[in-house]
Amino acid sequence: MHLLIFGKTGQVARELAREAGARGFRAEFLGRDAADLTAPDACAAAIAATGAEVIVNAAAYTAVDAAEADRATAQAVNADAPGAMARAAAARGLPFLHVSTDYVFDGTADRPWREDDPVAPLGVYGATKLDGERQVAAAGGPHAILRTSWVFSAHGKNFVKTMLRLGRERPELSVVDDQKGGPTPAADIARALLTLAEGILAGRPGGLYHFAGAPTVSWADFADAIFDAAALPHRPLVHRIATSAYPTPARRPLHSALDCARIRDLHGIEQPDWQRGLAEVVKELETAQ
Ligand SMILES: NC(=O)C1=CN([C@@H]2O[C@H](COP(=O)(O)OP(=O)(O)OC[C@H]3O[C@@H](n4cnc5c(N)ncnc54)[C@H](OP(=O)(O)O)[C@@H]3O)[C@@H](O)[C@H]2O)C=CC1
Ligand SMILES: Cc1cn([C@H]2C[C@H](O)[C@@H](COP(=O)(O)OP(=O)(O)O[C@H]3O[C@@H](C)C(=O)[C@@H](O)[C@H]3O)O2)c(=O)[nH]c1=O
Ligand SMILES: [Mg+2]
């Protein structure tokens, strides 16, 4: 398989490079220098000129709090550029794979969210990602949108690396215990995307899919699991707090676990256990030191 991938340095992009290599696929990555998503037409032009069989968008504006004060950039990167890419891919009949987020939901459900549940984003990041989903679907070409959550890896910015950094600096940390979701290793997302791409090329259905790690936990549970997995000189104490005690510019969903049955039933892709992925990421970080 020959893939064209938007994004080069992000968590999912880096794992796509590793996984495509492992499967013997040819993958070309366009970083910000080659395709800036604030210029959607340039992204579309790259697709019009490509020899790839599948297009993947792994780039996004992921700074949830910063997006609140920077809606225009988030809209261009998360919505208008993916829309332009999907239309350019549709014009050539090339499958377009896009990644979205649990933050399209408002977090009020008492069971894991299904693909057809009502969306109601609480912030600019979620709202622009939702508009991106809609533009990609409306382009009318073969496509898949993978909604995932709480992504972590040894690269880039994520909660695991933040906790390990803070945990080295402080004996105690306060972490919210009333926001629950599914941490997801970026490596598992990369594997799911490549399996989806193969499935779509083989005629299996596209559309919207949920894919997140199990079991569902709170951010405080996740912090404790991180400190259990890592060998820090002093294990920090995690104080469990309410969201109201940790004010942030963006509101976040309280319950964002995703029901991942559809991708299992239609593509045979199982929900990953994030605890295994966490052990691998901790090992990778320790080896890199
Ligand atoms: N991170 C998470 O917790 C979650 C992420 N997702 C989704 O998963 C996907 C992948 O996320 P993840 O790998 O974590 O993202 P990262 O934040 O790790 O990486 C984002 C990537 O987007 C690139 N990018 C940002 N702005 C631009 C721009 N203007 N032009 C070109 N490239 C740009 C960045 O490039 P550069 O390095 O140059 O800044 C970077 O490569 C995204 O669609 C995201 O919305 C979904 C749920 C959770
Ligand atoms: C650093 C820190 C965070 N928190 C809280 C803030 C927040 O509610 C929660 C997680 O913080 P983060 O900033 O890592 O989370 P956030 O950036 O909101 O993570 C989200 O990113 C986007 C891109 C997504 O798509 C989502 O799926 C999700 O992964 O933990 C604490 O309670 N204590 C702390 O010391
Ligand atoms: Mg963040």
UniProtKB/TrEMBL annotation:
SUPFAM superfamilies: NAD(P)-binding Rossmann-fold domains. Belongs to the dTDP-4-dehydrorhamnose reductase family. Its cofactor is Mg(2+). It comes from the Bacteria. Binds 1 Mg(2+) ion per monomer. Its EC number is 1.1.1.133. NCBIfam families: rmlD. Residues 1-285 form the RmlD-like substrate binding domain. It is an enzyme of class 1 (oxidoreductase). InterPro entries: dTDP_dehydrorham_reduct (IPR005913), NAD(P)-bd_dom_sf (IPR036291), RmlD-like-bd (IPR029903). GO terms for molecular function: dTDP-4-dehydrorhamnose reductase activity. Keywords: NADP, Oxidoreductase. Pathway: Carbohydrate biosynthesis; dTDP-L-rhamnose biosynthesis. Catalyzes the reduction of dTDP-6-deoxy-L-lyxo-4-hexulose to yield dTDP-L-rhamnose. The keyword Lipid metabolism does not apply. It catalyses: dTDP-beta-L-rhamnose + NADP(+) = dTDP-4-dehydro-beta-L-rhamnose + NADPH + H(+). This is dTDP-4-dehydrorhamnose reductase. The gene is rfbD.
